[in-house]
Design brief:
The structure is a single chain. This protein has helices at 2-19, 26-30, 60-72, 87-100, 112-122, 134-141; strands at residues 37-43, 80-83, 104-106, 125-130, 158-165, 168-175. It is an alpha/beta fold. The relative contact order is 0.15.
């Protein structure tokens, strides 16, 4: 009887294996399915335009915006923070790096292709702090849509979010912190009203 029982167990095991019904482990389920690469890109915050230097510092408004960036990305689970080696970019990146306990990884603004390749190889979630010209350029290199050029003198609130899965790339452009535009919002309060829906339709 014992031999017959063992034989039955063996037959059941063979059937399960041949049908591919062995439950996958958490790691096994991920094999062959790459995690999406999510990249957040911003220009450095407001810089000192009075004491013009090659390595300008942030203004008080700039430090406030850097803190606001960290607040905006607080739930984004950032795994890597990249910055050019300038005071204004490092100080913009610093609050996010501190929030997630990360070191700021420096990159050269002349080697954007190298940075793009490195992020694609790493996967995960990245914040990249750059400049008015390098930030849209990097978006384009990654296959995203940079939109119109950043206004050098006034625009510091642009936040790109690129999501890359295999060859599929999506670009989302948001604004964060204090608005840098003097134009009124084109969204009216009435356009945000939700039409009345009966309770049964919400189930």
């Amino acid at each position: 009887m014992a031999k017959l029982r063992n034989l039955k167990f063996l037959l059941v095991f063979i059937v399960i294996v041949s049908s591919g019904c062995i439950p996958e482990t958490k790691e096994g389920a991920k094999q062959g399915v790459p995690d999406p690469l999510v990249i957040f890109l911003v220009r450095h915050a407001e810089k000192d335009e009075v004491n013009m230097e090659k390595d300008s510092r942030l203004t008080e408004e700039g430090y406030i915006r850097a803190a606001e960036l960290a607040r905006t990305l607080a739930d984004a689970e950032i795994g890597f923070v990249h910055s050019t080696d300038y005071i204004r970019t490092r100080n913009t990146a610093a609050p996010v790096a501190e929030l997630f306990g990360l070191e700021i990884e420096l990159y050269s603004k002349s080697d954007l292709h190298e940075l793009a390749d490195a992020m694609k190889a790493l996967g995960g979630r990245h914040l990249v702090v750059g400049h008015s010209k390098t930030t849209p350029a990097l978006v384009e290199i990654l296959g995203g849509k940079p939109g119109v050029p950043i206004v050098e003198s006034t625009e510091y609130d642009r936040l790109y979010i690129l999501t890359i899965v295999n060859d599929e790339i999506s670009t989302v452009l948001l604004r964060y912190g204090k608005s840098c535009s003097s134009e009124p919002s084109r969204i009216s309060a009435s356009s945000l009203l939700v039409p009345h829906t009966s309770g049964s339709a919400l189930n």
